[in-house]
User: Fold this.
Amino acid sequence: MRTPHPIPYQGSKRNLAPKILSFIPSDIQTLFEPFAGSAAVSIAAALRKKSKLFHLNDINKPLMDLWELIIKKPEVIVKQYAKLWHDQKGNEREFYDRVREKFNKTRRPDFLLYLLARCVKAAIRYNFDGEFNQSPDNRRLGRHPSLMKQDILAASYLLKNRSTLTCQDYREVLSRAKKHDLIYMDPPYQGTFASGGFRYFKDLEFETFVSSLYDLTSRDIPFILSYDGRTEDKTFGKPLPQDLGLKKIEIKAGRSSQATLLGRNHFTYESLYLSKALIVKLRIDSKEITDHKSIQQTEMFSSY
Assistant:
């Protein structure tokens, strides 16, 4: 089975999941994703039998309602999406606008799946009133229902009866993790709420998040943290405190789309931070991390 990807989602770690999984031990009891999004890492881990159980959480309730349907009632969301996809034909732009308006009133998960399949760059965007306001990509109709069905059924097969689904503050989820578990964190961009065009309903406060990392470290909880990293001409965000003892690894994620538009040949590098407890569990030293899976470790500490 190829790795299914039922929810189109900007920032998904689908393409990076194999490299991320290379740092996940094989004896994990529960894999936690407190910022689940498309749950790409959990799906890939389930396919490769990296964890017995999974805990998916996201502050975006319609998104978690969508995951509830995909995992527990896949035939329902398959039928709903197919109807929306076929009903749009011949009046695509106006239909998209109507669905977006209905979603903002009802928060129905099938409307959200349709909007993500049709909107620009599969990017969730909300205004300051909490309304979905992303525009459609008028060049395409969204993923064909037959292909969407394959991925929904496959994801349900992998995660059904093995997953806990919640819509809570990430700190509540982190508090549940034990030493035999692993947490994978892909938090929202720092400051995206304040600047508008954000992916989440509320911003991630940096100092509070760092405090949570200290707590996990003190409890010897293994975790992997993804940050946005850098392009060849720009680094994103504040540095993480070095006394957390995290090991940073940079993954070459491909050409920067923005740089390409400007005629530049710059690459994007995404960063992973491995906790001290994970390093001990993997029994690898700094040199082995540097060489592991041809991933280059750098000295620069930067966050998202």
User: Anything to note?
Assistant: The mean pLDDT is 85. The radius of gyration is 19 Å.
